[in-house]
Write a structure and sequence with these properties.
Blueprint (H helix, E strand, L loop, with lengths): L4 H4 L6 H7 L7 H17 L5 H17 L11 H8 L13 H37 L4 E6 L2 E7 H26 L26 H6 L2 H27 L7 E2 L18 H24 L14 H24 L1 E2 L1 H8 L6 H10 L4 H14 L8 H6 L9 H19 L5
Antiparallel strand pairs: 1-2, 3-4
Helix pairs in contact: 3-4, 3-6, 6-7, 6-11, 6-16, 7-9, 7-16, 9-10, 9-11, 10-11, 13-14
Length: 424
């Protein structure tokens, strides 16, 4: 029975309308159970539930959360009606002072906060894998690129540390989204609160209209996921290039590559390619929800039912992509001989030659023109080797790779020590 059936009496919804309106929100079930438990404690404090009824609710909610999606029914309108039905007789009292509007907002905030925590842990795991490789490759010389053309010598470790910095910014965006999901909308009711004197939950959203209408926390999460996938896509693109025969900087591990159904020789970078492809979906989800929300008047509108699927999908993609990419990077085999060969290109030291002339008192523009003339004439003869060039380029350059790896590792270990043993 629909939660609003008292208004329509015995008039049933048509099957087509019921099918269209049904919410695909079963993933919210454990979070709605948590929100319902918080609300039940408020009802007990107000004397609407007895101690025995609160105990009954607690036991039932734990059982429902443990059953998960299996506890729901296709006949239920949404996850909220599923929980109310499963609570039995006491379920008829549990909705006092609460609307599905503040109920779903509460459950959804709890879901997004958990998704952020999950994403943060997975980002740290990938960053740790990249750090391990950066430490091992701190002295491995390779060419750095601009415009996808060889530019100056760097170390492979320095290049990998750039990935770590990208991931660090990604985790900061998830931290921001988690913080924005923390306030509790319970008490807002449908839009204007309730006449029942219920105690306010901790960290209550201050405005009842905003409490049920706000989905900025979901947008923040989708923005974090989109930004993450933009970075992962850039990493994936480099991996795809590096494992080609043309670059041959790295070789795919069989733990994270697939073959061809027709060509026996092929080993394909499918993990990297799919990560790159999922960036488009991540960006699209953010754009889609922004478009859904932009024209909505306060307070709640059913358009907001469209907020959950993009977030559910983003959470799955974030978890799966980070896990798969971690395996690929941990097991990747770098071709040191080929990297050294590519880094031995004397053209990589043209800037060093110009700066050597500047150190001798020559204006940079003249030095630049002189070295460019040597390049055009094929007479460039650098005074240094790639390793010497790298050693002379201290922080934030590649000459301090080992120290930068140690600093990044200390940052990660300090964070893990701070969060160890904590759960939501």
């Amino acid at each position: 029975m629909a939660l609003w059936s008292g208004r329509t009496g015995d008039t049933p919804l048509s099957a087509e309308v019921k099918r269209f309106l049904k919410a695909a929100d079963a993933e919210l079930l454990p979070y709605d159970c948590e929100g319902t438990r918080i609300h039940a404690e408020r009802l007990r404090s107000a004397g609407i539930l007895t101690d025995a009824e609160l105990d009954e609710v607690d036991v039932a909610l734990k059982r429902i959360a443990k059953q998960g999606v299996a506890a729901t029914s296709d006949q239920d309108e949404d996850v909220h009606s599923s929980i109310e039905r499963l609570l039995g007789e006491v379920g008829r009292k549990i909705h006092a002072g609460r609307s599905r509007n503040d109920q779903v907002a509460t459950a959804f905030r709890l879901y997004v906060a958990a998704a952020c925590q999950e994403g943060l842990a997975a980002i740290d795991a990938l960053a740790a894998a990249v750090l391990d490789r950066a430490e091992r490759e701190a002295e491995t010389v390779m060419p750095g690129f601009t415009h996808l053309q060889r530019a100056q010598p760097v170390t492979l470790g320095h290049h990998l540390l750039a990935w770590v910095e990208m991931l660090e910014r990604d985790r900061n965006r998830f931290l921001l989204a988690e913080g924005h999901a923390a306030p509790v909308p319970l008490g807002a009711g449908a839009l204007a609160g309730s006449t029942l004197e219920l105690p306010a939950p901790d960290n209550q959203v201050p405005n009842s209209l905003d409490a049920v209408a706000d989905r900025d926390f979901a947008l923040d999460y989708l923005y974090g996921a989109a930004g993450l996938f933009v970075h992962l896509s850039r990493i994936a693109e480099e991996l795809v290039l590096w494992v080609t025969a043309e670059f041959d900087f790295a070789r795919l591990p069989e733990t994270a590559a697939t073959g061809s159904s027709m060509m026996p020789q092929k080993l394909n970078p499918d993990v990297a390619e799919l990560v790159r492809g999922k960036a488009g979906s991540a960006i699209g989800r953010l754009a889609g929800l922004l478009s859904t929300i932009k024209g909505l008047p306060l307070a709640y509108n059913l358009d907001l039912q469209e907020d959950k699927q993009p977030v559910f999908a983003a959470r799955r993609d974030v978890s799966h992509a980070l896990g798969a990419l971690e395996v690929l990077i941990r097991d990747l085999e770098f071709n040191h001989e080929r990297l050294a060969e590519a880094a031995s290109d004397p053209m990589l030291l043209a800037t060093d030659e110009a700066e050597r002339l500047v150190a001798q008192g020559q204006p940079f523009r003249e030095a630049h023109e002189q070295v460019a003339g040597q390049v055009r004439g094929g007479t460039l003869a650098p005074s240094a080797e790639a390793a010497e060039s790298i050693a002379s380029r201290q922080a934030p350059g590649p000459g301090s790779t080992a120290a930068a790896v140690a600093s990044a590792r200390e940052r990660l270990q300090r964070r893990r020590a701070t969060t160890s043993g904590t759960t939501r």
